[in-house]
Amino acid sequence: MQVHRLTVASIQFTNPQVFLLELQAYAGDPPQPGQFFEFKIGEGFDPLLWRPMSVMDAWSDRLLFLTQLRGRGTQWLAQRSEGDMIEILGPLGRGFPIPEEPVTLVAGGTGVAPLYFLARRHPDRVQKLIAGFATSPGQLLLDRFYALPVPVILTTEDGSLGLPGTVLDVPDLQDRPLVYLCGPGGMIRRFQELGFEGWMSLEDVMGCGTGLCFGCAAWHRKEQRYVRTCVEGPAFPLQDVESLLF
After folding, report:
1. φ, ψ dihedrals at 195, nearest 5°
2. What ranges do the domains of the chain cover?
3. Which is it for the CA torsion 101, 55, 141, 59, positive or negative?
4. Whose CA, among 23, 98, 128, 191, lies 20 to 30 Å from 182?
5. What is the pTM of this model?
6. Measured between alpha carbons, how far is 117 from 58 in angstroms, rounded to an integer?
7. Domain 2-92 -> CATH class
C-alpha cells in the first residue's frame, strides 16, 4: 500500500446528494472490485481520521468513486475543483472473489460502487445487477448502469424510478439466488436473516484502513472472534460475519 497524490479530473453531481469523483495520475497497483482507498480530508489534522471509499471504476491512470454527502468529509470532497490535489492511501482490503458461477449483484445506495466495478470487470460471471435507492440516482448514474453489459433492475423507495420499494421487493430474488451484496447494514442483515448465501462487502467506519486502530471490528460467527473489516474484509462470506454497526 502507498500514499498517492492525485489530481481531481472531475466532480459531477448525479443528484443533489450524490456525486462522482474522478481522480487522475494514478500509478499504483490496479484495484480489484471491493477494495477501497482512504482519503485524507482537509488540511493538517482536522479532521483527524481519513475516509474510506470503495472504487467504482478504474482505468490505466484514473480512479472513479461514488460519494454521498454525509458530513464534513464528504462536504470537503464535494468542494474540490478540477486540478486540486487529494491524498489517498491504497488500494486496501480484500475485495470480492471472482465468482465461480454467475451471481446476482444486489446494492443499496452508494453500495452499488464495488458491484458496478465487478460487473464491468467480469460481466460473464454476473446474472444481473439489482440496485435500490431512496429516490432516482440521477441521469449520469443511469447512463452508466444501462451501459453495463449485464441486465440492470432499479428500485426506488419513493417510486420515482424503476420498481417501487426496496431491493427485497424484486421478484427475481424470490428463488434465493447466490448474491454479492453491498449496502446499508439493515439491508445486509435482512439478507442474512432470510438465509441468502454469497458474499457481502461491509460499509464500515475505517479510521486507518490498515488494521491498527481496530475501529472497524466485526464479529466472525464461525471463527468466534473479532476481525478487522479493513484487513480481513471488507468482503466476507455473507453468513460468516456481522458488523457491530448493524
Report:
1. 85, 15
2. 2-92, 103-243
3. negative
4. 23
5. 0.95
6. 8
7. mainly beta
